[in-house]
Amino acid sequence: MNLYISAAQLWEELKSNHLAKYGAVTAATAITGLVLLRKWIAGGVCHSHVRLDGKTVLITGANTGIGKETARDMAKRGARVVMACRDLTRAEKAAAEIRRSTGNANVVVRHLDLASFFSVRQFAHEYIATEDRLDILINNAGVMMCPHSLTEDGYETQFAVNHLGHFLLTVLLLDMLKNSTPSRIINVSSIAHKGGKIHFDDLSFNRTPYDSLVSYRQSKLANVLFTRELSRRTKGSGVTAYALHPGVIRTELGRYVEMRHPVVSTLLSIPALLLMKTPKQGAQTTIYCAITEGLENHSGCYFSDCRLMEPALEAKDDLAAMRLWDVSAKLVGYKEED
User: Fold this and answer.
1) Tell me: the pLDDT tens digits for 182-227?
2) Catalytically annotated residue among 216, 242, 288, 302
């Protein structure tokens, strides 16, 4: 056996060991960094253990994405969950899965098409006739950056679905919410409300070129302004209202963007897996606003990552909020005696 080693061999071995250790340290650092990045992206978590036995929660768009995860969480807490959805087949499938995973059989599906005022009124009428309470209303459903189109009532789809439909649903169920106090209304908005503007003179882009992002921002700003005015009008009634940004989430909401830009979407799909929240993570702020005790003094406020946040200046315009309420009521044909 050769007990000697040349200087060159020794150097190569030392270098090899150094590179191996360097590689291991680099890999460990990268993994740690990735874990921390994912934790930061995941954002806040609702840690409340509040039970909702005997309570009824109504969630729009609850068959997929953060709506489904919100429904699952409410069911786990013992609530009666009413899933208000347009696609009944998918909704029934989601409801069955939620019943199995939570052990709560009190999860029901009702048809609701927010693009149709007739459907909204029919849903509200049936809900009032068949349910005895409404403790939490979560206006979660929405569309994002879809091509220009008008609803059957003649209004631009994003503004109609994201705001007008939920506005009508809420005001029609407001008496039931007041009879179930303390109760809450949660409006899922977006950080996209920043930079938004309510185009009172052309809400449906009939006279100006349609821009899907401008329209989306308008609808999300409307969500926050509606929450603000709703809070003012329900002050002292036991009903409170909250708006929120759920985060950037991997859901079907971005399907129109993917359809319009398939190549870019494909290239960004892998980074997106790392840089976007999961639906469960995205549902946390909705859940936080729905159940966290002590939020009553923050009615009308805006939340993100389970924290109180400052909305855009445009979202704190009380005159715009009051005007939006009046215009919305007129557009949906709602009068106080409804």
Assistant:
1) 999 999 999 999 999 999 999 999 999 999 999 999 999 999 999 9
2) 216
DSSP characters over 252-315: GGGHHHHHH-HHHHHHHHHHHHHHSB-HHHHTHHHHHHHH-TT-GGGTT-EEETTEEE---GGG
Is 210 a catalytic site residue?
no
The reported pLDDT for the residue numbered 5 is 55
The angle at the Cα of 185, spanning 155 to 71, to the nearest 5 degrees, equals 95
**Token pair for 298:** 């923050």
How confident is the model over 102-138, as pLDDT tens digits? 999 999 999 999 999 999 999 999 999 999 999 999 9
Give the DSSP per-residue string, 78-89: T-EEEEEES-HH
Computed from CA positions of residues 84, 134, 323, 223, in that sequence, does the dihedral angle turn out positive or negative? negative
- The tokens of 290 are what? 């729905």
The pair of structure tokens assigned to 188 is 């899922």
> Using CA atoms, how far apart are residues 67 and 281, in angstroms rounded to an integer?
12
Q: Please give the Cα distance from 146 to 152 (Å, whole number).
A: 16
Structure tokens at 110: 């009702």
Closest CA to 184 of 126, 258, 243: 243
CA distances 253 to 112, 193, 202, Å, are: 18, 16, 25
Q: What value does the CA radius of gyration of the chain take, rounded to a whole number of Å?
A: 24
Element (H, E) at 136: strand 136-139
| Residue 270 CB-density burial (10 A; 0-12 exposed, 13-18 middle, 19+ buried) | exposed
Using alpha carbons, list the distances in angstroms from residue 113 to 87, 110, 119, 251. 9, 10, 6, 19
